[in-house]
Amino acid sequence: MRIAIVINTSWNIFNFRLSLIKALLAEGHEVIAIAPRDTYSQRLIDAGCKFVPVTMEKGTNPFKDIWLTWRLYRAYSRVKPDVVLHYTIKPNIYGAIAAHFANIPAINNVSGLGTVFIKKDYISSIALKLYKQAFQYPAKVFFQNQDDRRLFLKHNLVRAGITEVLPGSGIDLKAFTPIPKPDSNAPFTFLMIARVLYEKGVAEYMEASRLLKAKYPTIKCQLLGQVDELSRFGVKQTVLDAWLAEGAVEYLGTTDDVATIIAQADCVVLPSYREGTPRTLLEAAAMAKPLIATNVPGCREVVQQNINGLLCRIRNAPDLAEKMEQMLQMPPEQLQKMGEASRHIAETKFDVNFVIQRYLHAIAEVTNSKKV
Questions:
Q1: CA–CA distances in Å: residue 162 to residues 52, 103, 337, 369
Q2: In the predicted model, is pLDDT for residue 370 greater than 80?
Q3: How far is CA 282 from the centre of its chain?
Q4: DSSP states of 246-284 as a string?
Q5: How many H helices and E strands in the chain?
Q6: Predicted TM-score (pTM) of this structure
């Protein structure tokens, strides 16, 4: 069977869907990665995929993005996949429409609603209309938490019968395993892993770190993630530089070896405004780290209050600082217990093999339905 995977970057496919790709290849399927070309495109080819480049402009101009439907339609017509797997907002919307016109069954994955339900404005109202139009067509729509599914049903954006909830993208429990902190005498370290976007809570993390460092100057507060100035919620490099100049947070840039950075942290923080199921929290949970996150959809699927971490209030830097201080003051035994609970949650709820099995079943289901 020929299966196409369509995402907004090759980086995203390689970092978040490689386990699924390997499983599909092991089953004897042909996998075609369709995405903009970047430095990870060759890695997808090396992993056994065929690669078809399709340009997807950044930004939120729905009128400009209509052309993406045509580009994806041409790619689908040329590749002729038996099924298309869509991820991220543009492939979910424009890819679903393109697959419909190409008469190819599609499986969409809503991995997070981004700004659509966070900032109510002209762009978000158009996005809702586009979702409603496009989501008539997929054979299956996966969500990463029940809140997102209920929201789509409430707005009549999708038929309930084709929806299902998955535990995020899952986590490879062999790739992310508990590793003792390399230097047990190193300062207590908080780590936030996210693209540098306001909607991820970066501003709140910066402020909370300033408040905490004023009381505990020896602690470390780190930020790992890509600057994305073209995003609607992107933090400008000049703003980030001004924040970093204050000295409260150390910026680590980006890395292909996230596990090594997580291993050096004592607590992983994500004060996001809304998530699907955040991959960074899954990675940290699998590595047995205590967590702090906002009490919002997606985050609270991974963080259980006082079990494996603490939940803070959204857009509230003082409350985040208070939760970070609580974590800092916990005895080592309690931190270890929280870390063990994180690993248990990762093992029992978020194993990537469960996600893979659901995809294999859904692929068989929608392709068999087409044959009937």
A1: 28, 18, 39, 13
A2: no
A3: 10
A4: TSS-EE----S-HHHHHHT-SEEEE--S--SS-HHHHHH
A5: 16, 13
A6: 0.91
- Cα→Cα distances 163→88, 143, 367, Å: 16, 7, 17
Contact residues for 47 (Cβ-Cβ < 8 A; gap 6+): 14, 18, 21, 22, 25
Task: With a cut of 90, say whether residue 2 has pLDDT above it.
Answer: yes
Q: What is the pLDDT of residues 275-322, one digit of tens each?
A: 989 999 999 999 999 999 999 999 999 999 999 999 999 999 999 999
Q: CB atoms < 10 A from the CB of 351, how many? A: 17
Identity of the amino acid at 208: A
Fold of 2-170+351-371: Rossmann fold (3.40.50)
Under a CB-based contact definition with an 8 Å cutoff, are residues 220 and 193 in contact?
no
Encoding tokens for residue 245?
Answer: 């100049």
Dump pLDDT digits (tens) for 92-133.
Answer: 999 999 999 999 999 999 987 655 665 666 667 777 888 999
Asked if residue 41 has pLDDT above 80, the reply is yes
The domains spanning 2-170+351-371 and 189-349 adopt the same CATH topology: yes
pLDDT tens, residue by residue, 170-206: 999 999 999 988 887 899 999 999 999 999 999 999 9
Please name which of 179, 371, 195, 157 lies closest in space to residue 280, comparing C-alpha atoms: 195
Phi, psi values for residue 171, rounded to 5°: -135, 135
Buried b (16+ CB within 10 A) or exposed e, 55-94: ebeeebeeeebeebbebbbebbeebebbbbbbbbbbbbbb
Give the residue from 367, 321, 372 showing the smallest Cα distance to 3.
Answer: 367
* CATH code of domain 189-349: 3.40.50.2000
Residue 37 DSSP one-character state: -
Q: What are the domain boundaries of the chain?
A: 2-170+351-371, 189-349
